[in-house]
Design brief:
The protein is of the alpha/beta class and 450 residues long. It has helices spanning 2-24, 40-55, 72-83, 103-109, 142-159, 163-171, 178-183, 194-201, 232-240, 243-262, 268-283, 289-309, 315-331, 345-378, and strands at 28-35, 60-66, 89-93, 99-101, 113-116, 121-123, 128-131, 137-139, 175-176, 189-190, 224-228, 392-397, 402-407, 410-416, 427-434, 437-443. Helix 10 packs antiparallel against helix 11, helix 11 runs parallel beside helix 13 (315-331) and helix 12 (289-309) packs antiparallel against helix 13. The termini are far apart. Residues 386-442 form the NfeD-like C-terminal domain.
């Protein structure tokens, strides 16, 4: 009997000891969405998403990718980040109707596993230099094209994917459907949705080695899913980085500046033009969130200084407050859905309040300063010669017909208007100013104006 009790006690002890460990080993898969042009901001997004999944020891992170392409330098930074990831990165071309074109193809081929939803495409990644004035594509020279062919072939070779088809994505601008991509060995999974992907990818080995682990087998079938949704900031940046919108912002900004310079004094066109011009430059995708934030904060300081030097009754101040707040939010970006960027979500909540308070205080400061300047400009001058007319001074040297009077603590040359003598000590009223000479007349019983 005692032995049975002891055995039960031992079993319970083992359960209690190992229960936390079992609980701590729950499998988690992170899911994030990247939609739109590949820019410097996309680099920040990938880094944020992957870093968050790494910190939480996720089994893998699935990036739902839908992009027409973008900047080559940004793409290469993303590829480097995926290659250095300490967890498997799965690129899932999703949703139906989506694509991983141009730069998106390179990103996909650098991932540890590629999945596609039905109705999506991958490929067509010939490099271009931009667009001509008539809208035609400016092709990249053979030197650049050959570099990217070798680059994409190497990504395919490293992952054991089809090198020939990878090269044709560039040389022939070829695109393929999920079925063709699966047939020719470019992707590993065709999945209708996330649940289908988790089921089909479970047990597969990664095509690329994971940093510090080598190739790993995925165990994601019954994993908990944590979504990292794009933040409001990411959504705004997604729209302004659209090439058409960025182009319109740039041109409208230039028009606003030109119109403002041609109609000085109003200040509205150049203010709006400056903001749109900067947003257009940011929209070109050359900057990351931090650089864009710094640019907007610098613009805000310019608006504040302009308000102090050229009072606009609050126009520059309002523009400065708006750009300061937007710049601060971009500079100290918080989390989209529990993920961390530069600071923790708790710190960012406090920092966001500090940014708003600082913007308001700066706005009030410059508004007050502007109001003071306006009042100083509007104040009626009292030291002008015209203001001396009607004032009464004291004769300190006989005016006969010329002499000297003291007025407002200053000595003035004076001349009697009718030629009569005004002796020392008498009061004389200014009736006219001729150059530096005051024309005066004798008065009695009037206070002197000194």
């Amino acid at each position: 009997m005692k032995s049975r009790v002891a055995m039960v006690a031992v079993v319970l002890l083992f359960v209690l000891l190992f229960q936390p460990a079992v609980h701590g080993q729950e499998k988690v898969v992170y899911v994030a969405k990247v939609d739109g042009m590949i820019t410097g901001y996309t680099v920040d997004q990938f880094d944020r998403y992957i870093s968050e999944a790494e910190r939480n020891n996720a089994e893998a992170i699935i990036i739902e990718l839908n992009t027409p392409g973008g900047r080559g330098d940004a793409m290469q930074e993303i590829v480097t980040r995926i290659e250095s990831a300490r967890i498997p990165v799965i690129i899932y071309v999703y949703p139906s109707g989506g694509m991983a074109a141009s730069a998106g193809t390179y990103i996909a081929l650098s991932s540890h596993l590629i999945a596609m939803a039905p109705g999506t495409v991958i490929g067509a990644c010939r490099p271009i230099l931009g667009y001509g004035q008539n809208g035609s594509i400016v092709e990249a020279p053979p030197k650049i094209t050959n570099f990217y062919v070798a680059y994409l072939r190497e990504l395919a070779r490293m992952s054991g994917r089809n090198e020939t088809l990878a090269a044709e994505f560039i040389t022939e601008d070829r695109s393929v459907t999920p079925e063709e991509a699966m047939k020719y060995g470019v992707i590993e999974v065709i999945a209708t949705d996330l649940d289908d992907l988790l089921q089909k990818a479970d047990g597969m080995e990664t095509k690329m080695p994971v940093e510090g682990k080598g190739k790993v087998v995925l165990h994601i079938k019954n994993a908990d899913v944590v979504y990292l949704e794009p933040s409001f900031r990411d959504t705004v940046v997604k729209y302004i980085t659209d090439p058409t919108i960025a182009y319109l912002l740039l041109n409208i900004g230039f028009i606003g500046l030109i119109f403002g310079f041609l109609t000085p004094g109003w200040h509205v066109p150049e203010t709006i033009g400056a903001i749109l011009l900067v947003l257009g430059l940011i929209g070109l995708g050359y900057f990351g969130y931090r650089s864009a934030g710094l640019i907007l904060i610098v613009l805000a300081m310019i608006f504040f200084i302009a308000e102090a030097l050229t009072p606009t009754f609050g126009l520059f101040t309002v523009a400065g407050v708006v750009t300061f707040v937007i710049g601060g939010i971009l500079l100290f970006s918080g989390t989209g859905a529990g993920g961390e960027y530069l600071v923790t979500s708790e710190t960012y909540s406090v920092l966001r309040i500090a940014i708003l308070v600082m913007a308001i205080l700066l706005g009030l400061f410059f508004l007050f300063g502007a109001a003071t300047v306006v009042r100083a400009h509007r104040k009626k001058p009292e030291a002008g010669k015209e203001e001396l007319i009607g004032k009464v001074g004291k004769v300190v040297e006989d005016v006969d017909p010329e002499g000297v009077i003291k007025l407002h603590g200053e000595l003035w040359k004076a001349e009697s208007r009718d030629g009569s003598r005004i002796p020392v000590g008498e009061k004389a009223k200014v009736v006219e100013v001729r150059g530096l000479t005051l024309i005066v007349e004798k008065v009695g019983g009037v206070k002197e104006g000194e």
